[in-house]
Amino acid sequence: MADLLGQLEALAKGAREAIGSAADEKALEDLRVRFLGKKGELSAVLRGMGALPAEERPRVGEVANRVRDEVEALLADAKGRLDARKLEAELAGPPIDVTLPGRRLLPRGHRHPITRATEDISAIFARLGYEVASGPEIELDWFNFEALNIPPDHPARDMQDTFYVEVSTLGDGAPDGSVLLRTHTSPVQIRAMQRLGVPPVRIICPGRVYRSDYDQTHSPMFHQVEGLCVDEGITFADLKGTLAAFARAYFGEGTRTRFRPSYFPFVEPGAEVDVSCSICGGTGRLPVPGGQLPPDRATRRCGTCKETGWLEVLGAGMVHPKVLENGGFDPKRYSGFAFGMGVERMAMLRYGIDDLRLYFENDLRFLEQF
Ligand code: DAH
Hints:
This protein is of the alpha+beta class. The chain is 40% helix and 19% strand. The chain folds into two domains: 2-92; 113-136 and 188-367, Bira Bifunctional Protein, Domain 2 (BirA Bifunctional Protein, domain 2, 2-Layer Sandwich). It has 13 helices and twelve strands. The strands form three sheets. It has a seven-stranded mixed β-sheet with strand order 1-5-6-12-11-8-7. The protein has a three-stranded antiparallel β-sheet with strand order 2-4-3. Strands 9-10 form a two-stranded antiparallel sheet. The site of 3,4-dihydroxyphenylalanine (DAH) has 11 residues, from strand 11 and strand 12.
């Protein structure tokens, strides 16, 4: 027995020295295997216990357990010491500059030009005090037409032929033909007035609209931004000032605006609004590159404004009294103006895009230019 106890004593002593001077984690692991591993020194001693008389075994077992506990504690201490030293070295070393660009830059995505134009337009009106409102794309006939002073047989419906939803299957009592994909964002005027209840109402509504059209300048789904301002004492001058300020902010400082009388059932009076052409600067002509040409050949026709110098970009007007009433406002007390613009067109004019279908084909060669 004394022999085995002596071996355990020697083992503990050896472990204290070796573990105390271990230089790294690898060395520690080797020591753990050497002392506590299956084929290690402690196991070797324990195997010798088989030869001891039964009454001596508990004593040796007790010492062996104590030695194992001690070696384990030594290893844990040493590990803690090494970790702390490593951390200190890292902290003392050169700092990591987290502002450096990554080594391999992932290609970044692009916002779609329609998204960009919508955000730009919204930001300009936000600065003028407008909040962004929204309404459903599947709309009731009442909001899309009737409440906007477009009765069932009104010819204005022909210009906005759309897709009707069969509702008999929904079983909600609405007659077929009374639910449709909205043809414009104007129904949100009514919804916004009803929701806000009291003036001032100052909202814009960007969103998707639908019509059964498809060619170079029309797609069955497109985007509009509607605007509505209602309060006491709102006049046509407010409408002109607001849209002129918007046009300068969106198309550039020198942009001029022009109002032409027009008809929309939900406004009175109504107007179509033109801005001076952003491509030729309102002159109708573009310079021809390549030097000393005679004056009559030094410029060419601007195709964007068809040489008129003007671009039609908006419909607008003073909100019709019936529309105010349908929104829950007393037209004797309140007045307002409204306007609506096509986002595809606004983006085409700003970025010089000549075919509307490009927006929805998702050809990367087109999209990556923005
Ligand atoms: N909703 C009209 C359209 O889609 C555009 C429009 C014209 C909106 C005049 C208005 C407005 O708010 O006052 O053709």
